[in-house]
Structures are given as C-alpha cells and as structure tokens.
Amino acid sequence: MDVNKSLPAILVRMLPFLIGAILFGCLSLFLGQDASWDLKNYHFYNPFEFLNNLHGFHLLPAQTANFYNPLLDIPFYLVVRTLEPMQAGFMMGAVHGLNLGIIFLLCYECLVRLDSWKRFWLSFFLALAGMFGAISISEVGTFFHDNVVSLFVLSALYLLIKHMDFLIHRRDFKVFAFVFAVGVLAGIGPGLKQTAAIFAVGLCIAIFFLKIDFKQRFWLAFVFGCGVIVGFLAFSGNWMYKLWVEYQNPLFPYYNHILKAPMATIGDYKDGRFLPQNWAETLLFPFIFAKNPIRVSESVFFDLRWTTCYGLAFCCFLWAVTQRVINLRLYKKTDDIIKLSGIHSSLSDPVRRRFVFWFIAGAYLAWLKMFAIIRYLTGLEMLLPLAILLILDICLDRKAVKIWIAVGLV
User: 3-state SS string over 133-145?
Assistant: First the structure.
C-alpha cells in the first residue's frame, strides 16, 4: 500500500510536526519551569536590556554573556512576559517538538528502499527515539536554544538530502542558487547562536565529499559557504557591528588575543575545560564521557547512543578495511567501500547515507576541536538512531535483521 495514495501527502508530512508540538509541549509542562544558571543570569536579562535600551547602563550583570546576541532570546522573552506560565511553557516545548517532524522527513528520505508503510513507521520511530536523547529531553521547555537552532540546520540537511539527485546531476545556475539558499538557511543557526557553526561546517564538508568531479563539488561547497555567511550576517551582523563600534571587537570579548580590544584583557575567553587533553582521549572521547559525563557537561546524564554509534562506526570501518585488504570479490570497485552488502537488501540510498555520515563526522570533529560541551551537539544527538540504522545497513544483509537490531539498540 502506498502511504502517499492512502493518505494525503501533506498529512503524511505534517502529522509528525503536529505530534511533536503537542507531545513536547505537554512534556515541557511535566518537566517544570527552567531554572538554569544561564536563564537566571542572561537569557532573560539580555532581551530585557536590549528592548529597553539598557546595554552599557548596568555593569556586566551577565558577565561575558552580557555581550551575546539577544535576538534568539527576544521571542521567548516576549512569550514569557505576555502569556500565562502554563501557556508559555507549552509553547516553548511545542517549538522544540518541531524537530520531530524534520527528523522524520530526514529518515523518510534516507530509507528509500522500504515499502511506504514500513518506511513511514520506521522513520517515525527513529525520529521519536532521536528526540528522547538525554540532552534533548533536558532542553525541552528551556532557554538553552540548542534545540531551536537545530530546526534551521536539520532543515538545511533535509533539503540537501531530498534534492540529492538534483545536486549531483545538474550543472547549471539553478543548482548553485539552490545550494546558496540552503546555505543561508543553515547560516541562520550560527547567526542566532554561534555554537551552531559546527553544523554548517559539517554540511560544507558533506557537500565537498559528494561523488562528483572535484571542480563541481568545490564550487558547490564554496557557494554553500557564501550562503552560510549571508545567513549568519543577516541575523548576527547588526549585533557584531554594534560590538565593533562600542568595543572594537565584533565577537567581544572572544578572540581578544587577536583583536586586542581595549575594554577586555588579552585572551581568547573560550571555555576549554571540557576539551580532550590528548590524542587518546580524542580518539576515545564518546567512551570517556559515557563513563564520566562531567567531562562534557556540568550535569550528570546517562545515554549510550553516542558510544553505540561511535563503536559501531569504528567496527564497521575496521571490517571494511579488512575486507578490502583480502580483496573479496565484492570490493573489486575501489569506490564501493560503503557497499558492503548487496543492493537488493539495502534499506537506504548509498549517496544519501554517505552524505549523512560526512555531515555527522564533520560536525562532530568541529565540536571536538572547538567546544566538547555535549549540549552543543543536540542537533546531532537527534540523528543518532538514524545513523545507527544506516551503519547496520552497511554491515548486515537481511532487512529484518537490520531493523530489529537497530530497534533493540535504540
């Protein structure tokens, strides 16, 4: 039965958004009011200060966070100030729940070799599992916003995945215009919260490693990067200009060891407490923070999805290398390292699968180098159930075995 014939296509696509908004709006009320340090110190104060033109009137009430772009906090501040507490809590959770619909669409586009109903329900299950990660749950109904900027980044990823054939086969102006527009969308995330830049890096890397000629993929990645810059400046440029005029540093006080603004001491002001200390930690970091979550967070949490996904990926890589070395018949084509099982039993499209892997790997490595603070990876955490299934899709042959093992692991 074709789900698109038995149900209106718009309903199929909108139903997970509706379920996500209602479910996580209710979950926000169940979890209670946000009482984090960040909210008490700057997420609520910064938009108040901005809207009342008080910047510089009070002396660093939010410490260095007083210089963060307040734009993302403004709508949530207005919701809290305007609505009743229960209404505000539900609305904030509902916004966060929209991620469910985007992840569903991503899964649905990747699992193209399942029949429509299995594809629908498996995609919905993976999306729901992605939303119930430890960090994702901890941010529902809060002001941290990692699950708000994820809406823009995951939407950009979905558009690239959905139009992958167009991206690969077209060579005209339209494909560059499309990539630029998606780049603008991806740039909104870091424009609102600069830590989301890691996802734009991941998308750019994934585009660069498309299996097309070098010149084409180079220019696609370049145009995408230009779009990211435009999206970033559209939502952060005005604030950066304000900081430049007032403090001679558009990222004030960060990177002041380079820009040397007179109103701050010389230093980069980065929080390096959570970064890996050596190469061994860098290589084994998901196992390290699974055992000791304080390495990547100020709060204790327990979630094995990162360890599971990373371990499976590492084992899959070793197995692929082993098979390549012994030169099995299946690997005579040197560009087929990801096709470790027969096409007839595959759940996903190899091109889209590879794109998702490059995106996750690129964003994770950027995060590992820049922050190593786990909540900044909320957007990737939501994708890990899908990533686990895609890894199993490479390594195993029978569809039913892949699905049930993935469901069991998740």
Answer: CHHHHHCCCCCCC
- Look up residue 305 and give its two tokens: 């999805």
Q: What confidence tens digit (pLDDT) does each residue in 246-264 have?
A: 999 999 989 888 888 888 8
Instruction: Judge whether 350 and 390 are in contact, CB under 8 Å.
Output: no
Q: Which ranges constitute the DSSP H helices of 248-349?
A: 256-259, 279-291, 305-325
Q: Region of 29 please: left (phi>0), alpha (psi -120 to 50) or beta.
A: alpha
Is 344 strand, coil or helix? helix
pLDDT for 404 equals 84
Q: Considering only CA atoms, which of 151, 120, 82 is closest in space to residue 5?
A: 120
Query: In angstroms, rounded to a whole number, what is the distance separating the alpha carbons of residues 221 and 271?
Result: 30
SS3 track for 201-260: HHHHHHHHCCCCCHHHHHHHHHHHHHHHHHHHHHHHHHHHHHHHHHHCCCCCCCCHHHHC
Q: Please tell me the distance from the alpha carbon of residue 310 to that of residue 295, in angstroms, as a whole number.
A: 17
Structure tokens at 81: 């100030």
Backbone angles phi, psi at 333, to 5 degrees: -85, 120
**Amino acid letter, residue 173:** F
pTM: 0.91
Question: pLDDT tens, 270-285?
Answer: 888 899 999 999 999 9
